[in-house]
Amino acid sequence: MPPTNLQHRRTHNLLLVSKLLHLRDNASPFTLVLDSLEQSGKALVREFIKRAKLAKSRIVYISFETLRKPADVDVFIKARRKAPAALQKEILSVSSLSQRTLLIIDTLHPLTSHPTLNLPTFLSALITPTTSLLATYHLDIPLLRHPTSTYTAQPLTLLKYLSTTLLTLHSLSQILARKAAADKSVPEPVFGLDEDVEGVIRGLGGNDRRGIVVEMEYRRKSGRAVGEWFFLPTITTDTKKTAMGIRERAILLEDHPLYRRLPDERDDDAVGSGGAADSTFDLGLTEKQRRDRDGVVLPYFDAQREDGGAGGRILYDMGEEDDFDEEEDEI
Length: 331
Fold this sequence. Notes:
Number of strands: 11
Radius of gyration: 33 Å
Low-confidence stretches: 262-277
Order of helices and strands: HEHEEHEHHEHEHEEEEEHHH
Shape: elongated
Largest sheet: 9 strands, mixed
Structural class: alpha/beta
Number of helices: 10
Helix content: 25-40%
Strand order of the largest sheet: 3-2-4-5-1-6-7-8-11
């Protein structure tokens, strides 16, 4: 990609992800986070809470699996074992119509497994012009309830259709391992449950402490989708702040030092120190092999000699097993 186009894409998409994380202008009414055992979504949710607090937004946390109230949360609702209608009424009662509100649902599985709940209707009723919804769906947890009809869409399919922003999380260590395998044209490694090894639940490098890799898919109002991969470093105590809050730390994944490969590095990998491509055998010649090659006289050069040379003639010595036919032309 030309440098100008790359710089334009970098600037545009970094502004977009900053806008999404800060909940500016109601950019994404429904943000769906897809996490797994390999990369939890708790770090990303904490990032949303930190930025919403700096923006002075009201934060309502709906808990199905979280035991304690997270820091900087204004309202903590324990939703476990509550009827959907009662839960919806309680959420709407604490939502503010005059103040920007962020609703956070720590897991959607109890709602997707409810036998009578209409999930799209339930979630749509929570979203208002001043309220944004952030919900997490665990990809590794099987559903307790399956669609009764073959024509009924899976809950995850419905959630992807309803969401305006889809954030799929990956581990940095595992992304780097897959890229290293792809660069060498070898099969990519698998991790965790995909290894299909008894007793293995989470693979090596899961939940990397350096940060998380976010695969973003943002749906515009026009219906066009914008896709990008980001790296979001972990929040530390020495994180720099500006007058507008926390300095933007998200970068494009391809700009990460461990992921990026410069053009000259690609050339060095493709061409060895002697100018030959890297391979498992030596393509060069020794001095003796070069002299022997130069001493070989090829037939079309031999035929151009003044005396005609020996080129162009076919010499054949008959063996004992050959059946000689006198009627054939003499060779």
